[in-house]
Design goal:
Layout lengths: L24 E2 L8 E2 L13 H7 L1 H37 L15 E2 H12 L2 H32 L9 H15 L1 H35 L1 H21 L2 E3 L2 E2 L1 E2 L1 H24 L19 E7 L5 H4 L1 H20 L3 E8 L7 H10 L6 H8 L6 H7 L3 E6 L8 H5 L3 E4 H4 L13 H12 L7 E7 L33 H6 L3 H26 L4 E7 L5 H4 L6 E8 L2 H5 L7 E2 L9 E3 L3 H8 L13
Parallel strand pairs: 3-6, 7-11, 7-12, 8-15, 9-10, 9-11
Antiparallel strand pairs: 1-2, 4-5, 8-13, 8-14, 12-13
Helix pairs in contact: 1-2, 2-6, 3-4, 3-7, 4-6, 5-6, 6-7, 8-12, 10-18, 16-18
């Protein structure tokens, strides 16, 4: 072939000949665009020599190799992230709401919420899908947050969280931390909780988005999987299948949340009817509580004094001797006592629910019911005493803010923490000893020549975290509390709140209950007379840290009096002698106590239609 003349203009190519590549491009197939190449490359007739390319541009090969190696790495990372997203999504969709149900078997469930979400992704057009995917992800994130809160609720209150009813417990938890561990830890806990909630919502939203992409990329397989799992879910739902007691295999958390709201609305209507039905609403004060005329009646709520304190051998080993010795001491002082059981509407916390239930004769187990009661004109046990010419008093040592609810209960005088003017070291729930609380009540309300008084007193030395336990001092040494010595541990409440040693928790609990019971017995010994009637009871069982999960809600109740006529009035109740109810003592719901008490100490059933038997 003759050499080309660089000065000569080449002839135009024919149609059958390929168009030669322009400088800086690679030859391409006919009808396609040329591909750009580096202008430095010297393209001979047979193309560039590989050796020459490597020698001239060694970085080109290493860069290409890096790109080729990076693609599988990125693909693998994507598959791992998608797998993690699927695991996160399934874990939160099938997880139970109670700590006691959190077992491997609990994860073998079919979540209809996830099936519906993926089905929508598969069937909706792209424009609608762009809206549905983030909305469903957000809803799943909110459900995950509620589930985590429920797990925490079950740990402390032995029941799941109900967002329609339990908002007040969240604020109470902040107060608990503030009182027990200080404002700094409480504020930090709130910030951390909000951050975790936001993070969890984002995590679930992103996980659902990634799983949705996977479903769309494998649309046929995803549709078949959703259809198969839907059939499995339906079969399990119809059969009521459960691998963990109380936890259906066919999970439907979103429906449960909606049903909670609907059930709350129905419950409110029914509760309003209960409030309006009251056999004692129109009874004149002169006919109320005639069997207690001239008596001082003290109703003492012992915080967390639950049936577990008497039924559990490890706990009763400390509590039983206190009750036995107390009964002997009171008997020697001329007193007698009878005891039974009440079923509280709450457990682990919510003392206000128990107190309002006992005093109102209504079953108040939620914040909406409590609010409805506060806006009613229900006759309470305390307002009945007021109508019958008793001076009524409430002593609330854990309450730090003004408490207008006292007027609803019918109290003439209400003491909250600032009113008690305690000057000593703090114990347990960041407050004063029960002995000090009773001492102030005695000094202010039961002095010489006082009118008959009815008092509802909250004793909170047995409030969690149950340590340190206050010491006993002589009643004449109580004063303003400044004489109390600081107990071991009182300077380190945060550690007590955050520790997780169940053995230590239970030991502290039984010591705190023993202290409160000893204090009551000592009060009766020191200040009791023929006209004192003491009713003391637990408000609720302690938290599952003490009881374990799924404990009953029974609490002991005892009436102590020197006047035998008082105890004769309750002879038909079947309560047992002494300060300790036995296992065969009657068990009543706490809301039945008001009517039974008013009937026993009133003019009799003949004048009260619809009163309880």
């Amino acid at each position: 072939m003759p050499p080309l003349d660089p000065e000569r203009t080449p002839a135009a190519p024919t149609a059958a000949e390929p168009v030669p590549a322009a400088a800086g491009t690679e030859p391409t197939a006919a009808g396609t665009e040329p591909t750009a190449v580096a202008p430095e490359q010297n393209l001979g007739e047979s193309g560039p020599s590989p050796a020459a390319s490597v020698e001239q541009h060694p970085g080109a090969v290493s860069s290409a190799a890096a790109v080729s190696a990076g693609r599988p790495a990125r693909a693998m990372a994507g598959r791992v992230l998608t797998g993690l997203a699927l695991v996160v999504l399934l874990a939160f969709l099938v997880a139970p709401e109670r700590i006691s149900q959190l077992t491997p078997a609990a994860l073998l469930r079919v979540p209809v919420d996830g099936l519906v979400g993926i089905a929508l992704v598969l069937v909706l057009p792209e424009r609608a899908r762009r809206i549905v995917v983030p909305v469903v992800g957000l809803l799943l994130g909110v459900l995950a947050v509620l589930k985590v809160v429920s797990l925490g609720f079950s740990q402390f209150l032995d029941r799941p969280f109900n967002p329609a009813q339990d908002g007040s417990f969240l604020s109470a938890a902040v107060v608990y931390l503030r009182e027990s561990a200080g404002a700094g830890l409480a504020d930090a806990a709130v910030v951390l909780a909000v951050a975790l909630a936001v993070g969890l919502i984002l995590l679930l939203s992103l996980s659902f988005r990634r799983v949705s992409r996977l479903a769309l990329a494998h649309r046929t397989a995803a549709a078949r999987t959703v259809a198969l799992l839907t059939v499995v879910w339906a079969v399990c739902a119809l059969a009521g299948a459960q691998l963990v007691p109380g936890l259906p295999v066919a999970a439907h958390d979103a429906y449960d949340r909606v049903e909670q709201v609907r059930a709350g609305a129905r419950d409110r209507d029914a509760f309003l009817d209960e409030i309006a039905t009251d056999a004692y609403a129109e009874v004149p004060g002169a006919q109320l509580l005639t069997g207690l005329r001239g008596k001082d009646v003290v109703v003492a709520f012992v915080e967390s004094y639950g049936r577990i304190a008497l039924d559990d051998p490890e706990l009763s080993a400390t509590v039983d001797p206190v009750l036995a010795a107390g009964a002997e001491r009171l008997r020697a002082a001329g007193y007698a006592a009878r005891s039974g059981w009440l079923t509280s509407p709450t457990a682990g916390g919510g003392s206000w629910l128990a107190q309002s239930t006992l005093l109102s004769g209504l079953w108040i187990d939620s914040a909406p019911r409590y609010q409805a009661f506060l806006y009613s004109h229900r006759l309470t046990l305390s307002s009945a005493f007021g109508l019958a010419d008793w001076h009524t008093v409430s002593v609330m040592p854990a309450t730090t803010q003004p408490w207008p609810e006292g007027r609803v209960y019918g109290y003439d005088t209400t003491y909250i923490r600032p009113d008690l003017n305690y000057q000593g070291p703090v114990y347990s729930f960041g407050t004063m000893p029960d002995q000090y609380t009773l001492s102030v009540f005695q000094r202010d309300q039961r002095g010489a020549g006082h009118p008959p008084v009815m008092a509802a007193i909250a004793l909170i030395s047995s409030h969690s975290p149950w340590e340190p336990v206050p010491p006993h001092v002589g009643w004449d040494e109580v004063g303003d509390g400044s004489g109390y010595p600081a107990a071991a541990g009182s300077g380190d409440p945060a550690e007590i709140v955050t520790q997780r040693d169940r053995g230590r928790v239970r030991a502290a609990y039984r010591s705190a209950i023993a202290y409160s019971l000893q204090t009551l017995v000592s009060y009766v010994e020191h200040y009791g007379d023929d006209d004192l009637v003491l009713v003391f009871l637990g408000d609720h069982q302690p938290s599952p840290a003490v009881t374990g999960s799924d404990a009953n809600r029974d609490v002991p109740i005892t009436i102590v009096a020197r006047d035998r006529a008082v105890l004769d009035r309750i002879g038909s109740w079947g309560w047992q002698d002494g300060l300790r109810p036995g296992p065969d003592a009657p068990v009543w719901r706490m809301d039945t106590f008001r009517d039974r008490f008013l009937t026993a100490f009133g003019p009799g059933q003949a004048t009260l239609p619809n009163s309880p038997n």
